[in-house]
Design goal:
Helix content is 70%, strand content 2%. The protein is mainly alpha-helical. The chain has 17 helices and 4 strands. The strands form 2 sheets. Strands 1-4 form a two-stranded parallel ribbon. Strands 2-3 form a two-stranded antiparallel ribbon.
Length: 375
């Protein structure tokens, strides 16, 4: 049997995702936990690890583009740099996802990592969030519930001379610049420098090998995803797909995100004999679980965990629904928008990131207030 470039890409994605799963398990890399530590205890260690992942991914992505090793200027999945600035989608979806991940005890990536560690609560979250993501992606639910009233509120940046929503394109459009590639590199490296200064000025963070390892590996994995699909191998992959008898799903320039892949996984499981539906995201989702499981078994930390009460179950169900719907609405999760999207300097990704943090922090404050009231 011929070992096609499509299979090579998917196996590479599987390996990268397994590394993400294992390292996230080992280092307890968790974006919901990062916000919780910051809001409830004033501890910024895991928050800085998340910011380090952003800085590493942004530096890698900017340098890949500047050197011509990857091309992200065209269409990507999701369309991070689209000139259609759907600000309300980013805000509402991000808030929903932030609230949801708090109720569900973790974001999309963390839920996958917890499943690999034996957490059946996260498995329930995955099933429910996946069904909701499927409804948003593969049925008319999104069109009926959101698109009719949200689409007219989107802003077409092209009308203002801005080719995309990348920061350099926005500023370049304001200044009448045609080529903003150098501006893109400058903005990206400046943001990275500011982030790194903030991250490493903390002596506690500098002493935490796990936080540094987690942030660095997640950032490098996102960079590798962009290089894989946006570089020469990605171009050969797309050319192969165009000539394939059955065109595989989502052969596009992309990197790691975990909510849309949940919906795509349900889509595949409805036609399990159709292997063309196994795409980058489906493979990545599987890889994170396998990597976390392998680490849990080697480290002997695998533990079965179930819901503590009916209230715990209800919270996780509501959280999963909000994550599945909100994640697709916002076009990404804490990794998909918060790291992968932000690495492209897309304004919408930054807005989504702020909304996710706000939603999570607000829900945590509410839970704390409720706990004090009931005490």
């Amino acid at each position: 049997m011929e070992f096609t470039i499509h299979q090579q890409v998917l196996l590479t994605v599987l390996a990268l995702a397994a590394i993400i799963g294992a390292i996230a398990n080992k280092t307890n890399f968790c974006t919901m936990g990062a916000v919780s530590d910051w809001v409830n205890m004033g501890d910024t260690g895991r928050l800085r690890a998340w910011l380090l992942a952003i800085a590493v991914a942004m530096a890698g992505t900017v340098l890949l583009e500047a050197s011509g090793l990857a091309n992200l200027s065209g269409a990507t999945f999701p369309p991070y740099r689209t000139s259609n600035f759907a600000w309300l989608r980013y805000l509402l979806g991000g808030l929903m996802f932030g609230v949801g991940m708090t109720l569900a005890s973790g974001c999309g990536n963390k839920s996958l990592v917890r499943i690999g560690g034996g957490n059946l609560k996260s498995l329930a979250v995955l099933v429910i969030a996946s069904l909701c993501a499927y409804a948003m992606l593969w049925t008319n639910f999104y069109a009926a519930a959101f698109d009719s009233w949200m689409a007219p509120l989107s802003v077409s940046l092209g009308k203002f001379g801005m080719k995309s929503q990348a920061l350099d394109a926005i500023v370049g459009g304001m200044l009448g610049m045609e080529n903003t590639a150098s501006l893109h590199t400058l903005f990206g490296l400046l943001i990275v420098a500011v982030l790194l200064v903030f991250i490493f000025k903390s002596e506690d963070f500098r002493a935490s090998k796990d936080n540094i390892l987690g942030g660095t590996v997640i950032g490098l994995a996102v960079t590798a995803g962009w290089y894989l699909t946006g570089g020469s191998m990605g171009q050969a992959w797309k050319e192969w797909a165009e000539l394939a008898d059955t065109v595989p799903s989502r052969v596009e320039v992309q990197s790691f995100t975990f909510i849309s892949p949940m919906g795509d996984t349900v889509h595949y499981l409805m036609s399990p004999a159709n292997f063309s539906l196994i795409n980058f995201g489906v493979t990545a989702l599987t890889g994170v679980i396998l990597g976390s499981l392998l680490y849990s078994l080697i480290n002997r930390s695998f533990r079965i965990e179930w819901f503590a009460s009916v209230g715990d179950f209800v919270n996780h169900v509501v959280g999963a629904v909000l994550m599945g719907i909100g994640g697709v609405l916002a076009m990404g999760c804490t990794i998909g928008q918060g790291v992968t999207g932000v690495s492209t300097l897309a304004l919408g990704s930054m807005l989504t990131l702020a909304a996710i943090i706000s939603g999570a922090a607000g829900m945590m404050k509410y839970q704390y207030w409720k706990m004090l009231r009931e005490a």
